[in-house]
Specification:
The structure holds two protein chains of two kinds.
Chain A: E1 3-7, H1 8-18, E2 23-26, H2 34-39, E3 46-49, H3 53-65, E4 70-75, H4 76-92, E5 98-104, H5 118-124, E6 128-129, H6 134-150, E7 155-160, H7 161-164, E8 166-171, H8 188-191, H9 195-218, E9 222-225, E10 231-236, H10 237-246, E11 251-255, E12 257-259, H11 263-271, E13 275-278, H12 285-292, H13 311-320, H14 351-359, E14 363-365, H15 390-400, H16 404-407, E15 410-415, H17 416-432, E16 438-442, H18 472-479, E17 483-487, H19 492-504, E18 509-513, E19 553-556, E20 565-568, H20 578-582
Parallel strand pairs in A: 2-3, 2-4, 4-5, 5-7, 6-7, 10-11, 10-13, 14-15, 15-16, 16-18, 17-18
Antiparallel strand pairs in A: 1-8, 6-12, 9-11, 19-20
Helix pairs in contact in A: 1-6, 3-4, 10-13, 14-19, 15-17
Chain B: E1 6-13, H1 18-31, E2 35-39, E3 50-58, E4 71-76, H2 79-84, E5 89-98, H3 105-108, H4 118-125, E6 129-132, H5 134-141, H6 147-157, H7 163-173, H8 176-190
Parallel strand pairs in B: 1-4, 4-5, 5-6
Antiparallel strand pairs in B: 1-3, 2-3
The chains are: A alpha/beta, B alpha/beta.
């Protein structure tokens, strides 16, 4: 058997391939993005990006209704967008197996919240599997498709950052080849969710979850590992690995299916240990249900509701709870160091725009993408950021609460991919109700933050095939925005003039910046300009060029008590000229 | 093969190539017959932020992340980041660091100073410390971009894995046109 080291995301893609999946759809979102990017290695699967997660899930539902096995993938907050179809899909059930992969981000490494997706499985009354390493990612994905068809239900597979972006060894299997061929089959009573039909389906949903719980009592993925009779831990996913590390002698009930819970198995496990713990990240999801069973159990009294767990955090909590002897040696500490937060790249077309928004004292309603980094000093040019698409609707709402002079300061900033994700709905509202705010669409021709994925305006599909491009300016006009201006964000004078004019306008307007992401090298989309250098004779040390926070520009203090000077790293400079335009002394050339 | 799990931490600045280096390490350990796990963060932190990859190998590995204070080897791509993650190590850990500085934003802006004695500070705490002039040696090998591979060579000497597995992993993971330079860079690291 072939073995490979795969990330959780690669293994989920492999599992989908082995399960015979025919159609896969997703919207990129860390930490889920690489699933679909790896699915395209398997030519048997029709894989594509969707403009947002709701659409992705609906594409997968359509494929399932056609009789094919279908996969949809998203990050945790994507399920909020996809929740509408998800809850009714629970009622219709499936024809071909349907699996929704959700990648949670405890600790918020790359997210705006750390909601616990296990609650969605309970809320939508569907099963959820949770793998603990890459091998399980692959095997559970395969199993999820079988369960989906056997119990006529969508199945959620939950990963977390440490599973999706962790790698471990996987044994590769073959693709199943005995699935029925997809075909159109009329079954309106099951698939048309009018009240009369839905009332018939709802009891089946309730019955299904009971049956799944019974199945979970005998399924191999829910595993009771009896060691010590003193301490037993109920856990799942990556936390299982941490518990094995820190409590090698403890008995463990490892749950591969976290919803519905196998009640008899839990009771049996609890009866075999003196002290029962639930160790889980984020919400007391398992703990509350075990308590509702009337069992005595400890969980969030010891472990935080916030952030991810780690071997060290579990060890500390157990030590404080008196369940583990204290380690005597004090941990090594280091002095406070200059922090290193993420930053926009050298040459990023967003940088000059945020500099100007700062100088114009704009109140910026922000959105989700690389440009959210415009919040950081020295740009300090973002005032709100809630969720995908919210910049425009937040601006539309905020201007309604303000006097005219303050309204002029409100600018919504959103990227091309986020605009097409859900921002376009918000712009429709703004145009319809004539909210007097300015919308700035930073069109860099790509979904940059998640690693440069194509979008409906980029001109290519997931597979790199040429595709129709949404014309964002025409779309804005079609929605009803009368004033749509396109400007080169590297031209600070022109951009400033456009911003000033549109911010004054007492009606909605859209400004589009049109420079491609500077990371898109080798694709004929981004070209470097002339690499710039600071003329040390002309530089007066005024620091004007430092105000844009470009990683290529460094302040070099003078050692002899004189004024320092700026220096440009030629290896980092892309020649965007933004700093050059800020230099009043013609010192950058 | 004993039951001890070996813990390696790769630290640097997003975009420096920690991910590829951790891939080569993992592949090597798998080829040598070990269980391997690794963990890292993609996404936001890769925009020039501080990054850390965990690689663990042994007969059987549970957690994909290194338990805090149990790191055996620190593979540093940048001095400030190497220093930042020292608390993840145990007192007898081996430290191999590229002699390379990337100023963080507050230093670029002239608001803070990049400490100039980091190498000495690391050496005081970790006697088994090697500072490598990766850029210079890689240039000698034929391409300054192979600096990480020089470091990898130095790290490889501090792990009990046969050379053949390292070379096999390099052959598998490095593009053909860059292979010769990288093998040379790797060998230069092994004699440090």
């Amino acid at each position: 058997m072939d073995r490979a080291i795969l990330s959780g995301n690669e293994a989920i893609a492999r599992g989908a391939y082995e399960a015979g999946v025919k159609v896969a759809s997703a919207y990129p979102g860390t930490p889920s993005t690489e699933i679909l990017e790896n699915v395209i290695n398997y030519k048997e699967i029709d894989a594509s990006w969707a403009p947002n997660e709701k659409v992705a899930l609906e594409v997968a539902i359509g494929a399932s209704f056609g009789g094919a096995r279908a996969l949809a993938c998203m990050k945790h907050v994507g399920v909020n967008v996809a929740a509408d179809p998800l809850f009714t899909l629970s009622y219709t059930g499936v024809r071909g197996g349907l699996v929704l992969v959700v990648a949670d981000d405890p600790e918020m490494h790359s997210s705006q919240n750390e909601q616990d997706s296990r609650n969605y499985a309970k809320f939508a009354k569907i099963p959820m599997l949770e793998p603990a390493d890459s091998e399980e990612c692959k095997e559970f994905t395969r199993l999820a498709f079988e369960l989906s068809e056997e119990f006529d239900t969508p199945v959620m597979l939950r990963s977390v950052t440490r599973i999706s972006h962790g790698k471990s060894i996987v044994t590769l299997g073959k693709r199943v080849d005995n699935l029925p061929a997809p075909a159109l089959v009329k079954d309106a009573a099951k698939l048309v969710m009018l009240p009369g039909n839905a009332r018939v389906r709802h009891p089946k949903v309730e019955e299904r979850i009971v049956n799944l719980s019974l199945w979970g009592g005998t399924a191999a993925i829910n595993r009771s590992e009896i060691r010590s009779a003193d301490l037993g831990v109920i856990c799942s996913g990556v936390v299982y690995q941490y518990v094995r590390e820190i409590l090698p002698e403890a008995s463990i009930l490892k749950l591969g299916m976290v919803h519905p819970l196998p009640h008899d198995l839990i009771r049996d496990f609890a009866s075999k240990v003196k002290t029962l713990l639930v160790i889980e990240e984020l919400d007391p999801f398992i703990e509350e249900q075990v308590k509702a069973m009337g069992l005595s159990v400890t969980g969030k009294a010891l472990f935080s509701l916030c952030g991810e767990l780690s071997p060290g955090r579990i060890r500390n909590a157990l030590e404080q709870g008196g369940l583990l002897a204290k380690v005597t040696s004090a941990p090594l500490t280091v002095e406070k160091l200059p922090p290193r937060p993420p930053n926009m790249c050298p040459g990023c077309p967003h940088r000059g725009v945020f500099y100007l928004l700062n100088r114009l004292n704009a109140y910026v309603t922000g959105d989700i993408g690389c440009y959210t980094l415009g919040f950081l000093p020295p740009l300090n040019a973002m005032d709100t950021c809630v969720c995908m698409g919210a910049s425009i609707s937040n601006a539309s709402g905020i201007v309604r609460s303000l006097p005219r002079e303050e309204q002029k300061r409100v600018v919504a900033v959103i990227g091309d991919s986020t605009f097409l994700h859900t921002g376009v709905n918000s712009l429709m509202e703004m145009a319809w109700n004539q909210a007097p705010a300015t919308v700035l669409i930073l069109d860099n021709r790509i979904t940059a933050m998640t690693g440069r994925q194509e979008n409906p305006a980029s001109g290519f599909t997931l597979n790199g095939e040429v595709a129709p491009e949404v014309n964002i300016a025409d779309l804005c006009r079609a929605i009803g925005i009368k004033h749509v201006v396109t400007v080169d964000p590297y031209d600070l004078v022109a951009t400033r003039a456009v911003l000033e004019a549109e911010m004054q306008r007492p009606e909605p307007s859209v400004i589009i910046t049109d420079r491609p992401c500077c990371l898109m090298k080798g694709e004929c989309r981004f070209e470097k300009g002339k690499i710039l250098a600071v003329d040390q004779n002309k530089c007066t040390g005024c620091k004007a060029c430092l105000r844009i926070g470009c990683p290529a520009i460094e302040w070099q203090p003078a050692s002899d008590g004189k004024k320092g000077k700026a220096y440009i790293d030629p290896l980092l400079c892309t020649g965007c000229t933004v700093c050059q335009q800020l230099c009043k002394f013609d010192a950058i050339n | 093969m004993n039951d001890k799990v070996t813990n390696i931490l790769l630290v640097g600045v997003g975009g420096q190539g920690t991910l590829l280096a951790s891939e080569i390490l993992s592949e090597t350990f798998m080829l040598a017959g070990f269980d391997v796990k690794k963990s890292e963060i993609h996404g936001m932190s890769q925009r020039g932020g501080s990054v850390v990859s965990h690689v663990r190998f042994g007969r059987e590995v549970a957690s994909p992340t290194v338990p805090e204070g149990e790191g055996d080897v620190l593979f540093g791509f940048e001095l400030l980041e190497a220093y930042r993650y020292l608390p993840l190590l145990h007192a007898g850990a081996k430290v191999v660091v590229n002699d390379y500085r990337i100023p963080p934003p507050s230093v670029l802006l002239g608001q803070e100073v990049y400490p100039d004695d980091l190498a000495e500070r690391i050496r005081r705490r970790f006697p088994d410390f090697l500072l490598v002039d990766g850029l210079h040696l890689a240039s000698e090998a034929g391409n300054p971009k192979a600096a990480n591979t020089v470091l990898l060579g130095a790290v490889s000497k501090r792990l009990e894995i046969a050379e053949e597995h390292w070379l096999a992993a390099l052959h598998k993971m490095v593009p053909a046109k860059a292979l010769e330079v990288n093998i040379r860079a790797f060998q230069m690291g092994r004699v440090l």
